[in-house]
Each structure stands twice: as C-alpha cells, then as structure tokens.
Amino acid sequence: MATVKPFKGVRPPKELITEVASRPYDVLNSDEARKEADGNPKSLYHIIKPEIDFTPDVDEHDPRVYDKAVENFKAFQEKGWLVQDSEEHYYIYAQTMDGRTQYGIVLAAYVDDYLSGKIKKHELTRRDKEEDRMKHVRINNANVEPVFFAFPDNAELQEIIDTVTKGEPEYDFVAPDGFGHHFWVVKDKALNDRITEAFDKIPSLYIADGHHRTAAAALVGAEKAKANAEHRGDEEYNYFLAVAFPASHLKIIDYNRVVKDLNGLTPDQFLKALEKDFVVEAKGKEIYQPAQLHNFSLYLGGEWYSLTPREGRYNDNDPIGVLDVTISSDLILRDILGITDLRSDKRIDFVGGIRGLGELKRRVDSGEMAMALALYPVSMNQLIDIADTGNIMPPKTTWFEPKLRSGLVIHKLDD
Q1: Using an 8 Å Cβ cutoff, are 82 and 76 in contact?
Q2: pLDDT grade, residue 105 (50/70/90)?
Q3: pLDDT tens digits, 265-320
Q4: What is the 8-class DSSP label of residue 355?
Q5: Of 52, 246, 324, 344, which has the fewest beta carbons less than 10 angstroms from its beta carbon?
Q6: What is d(CA 305, CA 332) in angstroms, rounded to the nearest whole number?
C-alpha cells in the first residue's frame, strides 16, 4: 500500500508567488530561462537553472553551477522569498487549462515504495539524466521541484479535495502561458490524517511525468539511508516531493513526430510503401486530426492523409503492441524510413500536442522536415495497464499538459 506523509513545505509568501514560480527545469533551455528570468531576481530559475547567473559559455553541468544553486536557495530563504511552514501539511494543487481543472494532492512519497515497485513507472530512464538531478537534490538537500503522479480514483480522497477547495486558496494566479494555478494548504490535522490513511489503502502510485526526477529523488534518499549509521527509517530523506492526481482528472495529449527525409524515397514511393500496411486516404490541404485510436494523420508535400492500419497489423491483446506509437514506430519509422532508435536518431524530432498540428505543417512547409505524423493520444487506462503489467512504453509516447508549476512548494530532506 502507498506510504505518504505531510511535510513542512518551503514556499513563497502569497504576494511573491508569481515572481518566484516558474516552468519546470526540463521544458526550456538555458537561453529561454535566462530571458524569462531577466530582471527578476526572485525567479526560481536561479535555483533550478542556475547557469542563467553565468555567461552563456559556462556549461550547465559545471560544478560552479550546482554550487550557485545552493547559494541562491540559501539566499531566497534568508531574504524571505521562501519560508518554511512551521507544521506538516498536505497541500492541494489545481491546474486549469482550456476550461478544465485537475486537482492533485501535494505529498511526500516514500523512497522504498519506488525502490520496491509500488510506485510504478512506464518509461526507461537514462543514467546521465538521473545523475544531473541527483546532484541537484544532493547539493541542495531538498526536492526543489515535484514529480507528477497519478492514483486510481478514490472516493474519500476526492471528498477531501472537494472539502478543502471550497475554502480560499493560498495562491491563485494565471501563468504567462494562460494556465491557471490554484493552491490550498490543508491545515486541519484530522484531514491530514485522513489523507495518510486513505493512501495507505491504495495499492500503487503511477509516475505520469518526471521519471528522471523520481529516480533521482529516490536514489538520493537511498544514499542518505545507507550513509547514516543511525538510520531509523522515519527521517525526512526517506520521502520526496510529489503531486498525485486522481487518474480520471488527467488527460494525456498527443505526442507527434517529424522526420527529416524519406530514406531515399520520393513522396509517391513513400505513399505506395505505406499501402502495404495501411489504408491511405487523401484528406486535402486542411489540417486533419486523427479521428480515433489506430488512426494516424500524415502531412507530406502540402497534403494531409489519413492512415488506418490494415487488419492483423497489430495485437489488441499486447499492451505495448496495441499502442499507436508502437504501430507507427514499427510499420512506418522502422520498416520504411529506417529509423530504429527513437532516442538517438537525429533524423527524427518530437512535437508535443500542445503546439497543435499547425506546428507540424510549419516544420514541413519550411523545408526543415520532409514529413510529419500525428498520433491519437494514449489513454490513462493504457498507461496504467502498461505499468501494472511491468511493461515499458516506447520513447516519446505521453505528453501531459499543463506541466506542474515549480516553486509553489519545496521539500527539505532534513526537516
């Protein structure tokens, strides 16, 4: 059963929240962060992307950059830009996008639950990316940014969310990207206790987004336990920062592909090759959105096409084989275009659905890319099924939006 606990959050005073809060470290590059933080010394980018305080020629993995994160984190607290709560709390964090609001519970998740597999993953992680975030957690002795979890819908937790969110939020603002962020402190001890007890009846938590951050946070916790000769198991480093949402609240959006060339084929030859495994229908110049599962949208030569796999080309009983990302990776990218490694092949790039299919059209029309492929999004049920069966999704399968805003609350590992 899932072990979670409340914690003494470190967070901005209400009047500073819009100055401190930022996008997550991994959705923008150093130059973009430098521009967003320009003129704002309170921006969390000074802690999560501290390379912005150096000249652009300084590598973001330079030891001085990690040291700067520590210096800035300490300064933020000394200046009162970040203040630690005196009591342990859970928090409710809601996000609004396109008129839809999803409500999550901010909590401290248990390191051993990740190590034992109770916190389930659906993606592989890369050690170099883990190590970068591990350095950041180690040196700051804190989880500065949360990870993004899902859990099976639970009536009691939903009732608690509904109760708390009837009150006035601690933070309530619209970020520059137009997404709304709302945040409540769960101050009633009885409600905090009920949250802990309710999660204790939930068999598993699921990583929705942030596999590298989750691995890094858990591995640092495990390191600290091993290094402490007097380790008891209840120390704060045994836990890490997460926001957990009921699965039904979450919506996965499409994650699309653009490819630089047709592997030596002409457009007509490429379309002909597709006909072996797909029913190909020309849709004209108007943007065509995939209509349902197992329907793809192709943009090529200024025209849109619908692609539907022919019978027998996939296995509905295989949780990985049934995924549209698997079907397209095998039958189009591998078999026709010769792209076998989605992680490393420089001929392919990936575009989150938040940018719209117009972005696919733009990149092909500009001549940068030869073709674009839009996929119908994976469902939360598919994600949970894959995690429950111990399978791993292919790379670049899921895109969650909106992203968690960083800087609303931080979890220290020593208190």
Answers
A1: yes
A2: very high
A3: 999 999 999 999 999 999 999 999 998 999 999 999 999 999 999 999 998 888 89
A4: G
A5: 344
A6: 14
Give the residues across from 9 on adjacent strands.
none
The residues, ordered by sequence, that sit 6+ positions from 306 with a Cβ below 8 Å of its Cβ are: 279, 280, 281, 283, 288, 290, 291, 295, 296, 297, 298
Strand, coil or helix: what is 124?
coil
Contact between 304 and 287 under an 8 Å Cβ cutoff? The reply is yes
**Concatenated DSSP letters for 158-169?**
HHHHHHHTTS--
40-78 tens-digit pLDDT: 999 999 999 999 999 999 999 999 999 999 999 999 999
Taking the C-alpha atoms of residue 178 and residue 183, their distance in angstroms, rounded to an integer, is 16
Q: Give the CA distances from residue 298 to residues 30, 360, 396, in Å, rounded to whole numbers and listed in that order.
A: 33, 10, 18
Token pair of 364, please?
């092909």
Could you give the 3-state DSSP secondary structure of residue 307? Answer: strand
100 membership: H or E segment, kind and range: strand 100-110
- Rounded to 10 degrees, the C-alpha dihedral 111/117/121/123 comes to 100
Amino acid at 84: Q
Distance CA 348, CA 257 (A): 7
Token digits of residue 259: 């490819």
